[in-house]
């Protein structure tokens, strides 16, 4: 049986990413630079064989996956599935606000003066999720346990299914906070991150019911793709 590896890509840069606005369940399309970045990631992944592909059901994730599969020599033959469980967190009434507004509110809910003070401590994703729920006046944000179970079950089911069918590599497009949250669920020593780069790859291995982390925030595939593109244009 082949090893089971998940290549989890953060979607390409969007309009709201560029404008520094909160984007969870709300959605905006990729910008030109965002599409270009994912084009390079796709070129960098051309030599990696994938048994199947998954993305969240958000438009930005689907758009990202279509670009990646379009650049892969086997892209038309790779089975592609959409799974709503691996979408981003829901920020409720904070959706669409400027990032600075949300990260101004959440520290105060948790009794910190600033965002920097919050991230300088051992604050947990559970505390942040509870703060989002507390600050959400629309009552749309998911309770922590529901969020945890959704994210964990989504990725674990993908890994278990691939292992059961002989292993191999799975290409996945998900979201910054969701990916960082998954890493912390796998390894509690992982820091709370809100800085995974658009187009970065986070690689996991799944074996005998357990995940292990192999790479975090890896942009080497994008850099390789840029090199390939530059040589092609010469």
Automatic annotation (TrEMBL):
GO terms for molecular function: fructose-2,6-bisphosphate 2-phosphatase activity. It comes from the Bacteria. One of its GO terms (cellular component) is cytosol. Substrate binds at residues 10-17, 60. GO terms for biological process: negative regulation of glycolytic process; regulation of pentose-phosphate shunt. The active site is at 11 (tele-phosphohistidine intermediate), 88 (proton donor/acceptor). The keyword Cytoplasm does not apply. Pfam families: His_Phos_1. Keywords: Hydrolase. This is Phosphoglycerate mutase. It comes from Enterococcus malodoratus ATCC 43197.
């Amino acid at each position: 049986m082949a090893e089971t590896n998940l290549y989890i890509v953060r979607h390409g840069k969007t309009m709201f990413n560029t404008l520094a606005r909160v984007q969870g369940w709300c959605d905006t399309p990729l910008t030109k630079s965002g599409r270009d970045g994912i084009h390079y990631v796709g070129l960098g992944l051309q030599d990696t064989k994938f048994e199947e592909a998954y993305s969240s059901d958000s438009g930005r994730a689907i758009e990202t996956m279509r670009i990646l599969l379009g650049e892969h020599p086997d892209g038309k033959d790779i089975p592609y599935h959409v799974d709503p469980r691996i979408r981003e967190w829901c920020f409720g009434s904070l959706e669409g606000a400027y990032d600075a507004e949300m990260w101004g509110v959440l520290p105060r809910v948790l009794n910190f003066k600033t965002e920097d003070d919050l991230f300088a401590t051992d604050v947990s994703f559970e505390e942040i999720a509870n703060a989002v729920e507390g600050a959400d006046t629309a009552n749309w944000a998911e309770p922590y346990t529901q969020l945890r179970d959704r994210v964990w079950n989504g990725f674990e089911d993908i890994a278990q299914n691939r292992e059961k069918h002989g292993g191999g590599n799975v290409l996945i497009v998900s979201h910054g906070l969701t990916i960082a949250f998954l890493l912390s669920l796998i390894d509690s020593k992982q820091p709370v991150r809100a800085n995974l780069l658009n187009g970065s790859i986070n690689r996991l291995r799944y074996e005998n019911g357990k995940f292990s982390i192999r790479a975090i925030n890896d942009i080497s595939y994008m850099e390789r793709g840029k090199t390939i593109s530059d040589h092609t244009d010469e």
